[in-house]
Task: structure prediction
Amino acid sequence: MNRFFLHFSLLLILITSISYSLPRFSLKTGGQCIDCHVNPTGGYIRNESGWSYGKNNLSMVRVHKSDDEFELSPLIGKNILFGFDYRTQYLTTERYRIIDFPANSPPETSYTKRSGFQNMTGSVYFNAAASDEINLFARYDFVWQLWEAYAVAHVLPGNGYLKAGTFTPNYGIRIDDHTAYTRGGDLSLLSQSGVKRGLVYSPLYLETGIEIGYYIFDFGLITASVANPRGSLFKTDPAYTARIELVPPISDDFNLMVGGSFATYKEERFDNITFTPFVQGVNMYGGFFGFGFGNFSIMGDYNIAANLPVKDSSASALMIEASYKLMRGLEAVVRYDRFDLNTKIDKNELSRFVIGAEIFPYSFIEIRPQYRINIEEPKIDNNSFVLQFHFWY
Result:
């Protein structure tokens, strides 16, 4: 019974995750991550501009005069920013995989319907400006009891910066739903195989090291990092990650994004046949694109990963998301995810359509309903519905 609740909780939590920046906002406005976030690569605490955008530009209900008279600010003193994110959700699924472990017997698998509420993630952020060029950031997730902290110094010649500490590596499109297979995927408890599908960038994946970034004129950013995955010190060599993103100006109504990523690291695995640990090298590379026109945006991210999760294999992950702003505070969002565990084997792919909406009824409040249609061979009834609530500041 304890294993059942453990697996169920993990599935619920991984349906979505810690709040990141929304790249489609950049596509629609023509801005870059640093325009709204302290972190040059986006995510987590918002600067004063990003905080103001969330307060005044997203909600269905426009700011009233009385709201203007009520003083709000993300500042604690002159140089310290404060912020937080909290997510909770209701999930119901048509098919949930239960694994029982009878004494002195092989594991038994059965399926049933399940639904419930989940406390998913909650983080508080602090950023201290030590000078005009140096920011010190810290985040504590009180649900996962997870720390993240780093310093960003815009001190390199040629409009560059240096980041040092514990952070999420800059790879691909960092959408805020980490069950996308191009991010962390999910536990695949709804599928027949039960094998984890997706890349490594789950909400719990962090690296400790350094990152260097350079701005390319006013429309691009190139980054490179060398760091150890959390908990891997002296077990494996550091991971190396590089990414380039270009957002060339096209027109006032049309915005474009294009770029690519590369990562290589060594992963310690456990051989299920010989029952011995081994280290395998994982290489990932991919490209991404996106464009925004008026109220419409579309973006895609495609990646190939060698030796993930199976040694001597090549996996692929694809994400395509389209959104349309129906009215102020209401967006329709459709996403297609696809993951091929081994491109050398046919009919082992897993894909899904995510159909939903993002509703911002008032400042710092988001409601996100989603229906997820899973597709595999042979077809099984494992679709799910998610109703998520997000509060931030």
The chain has four helices and 17 strands.
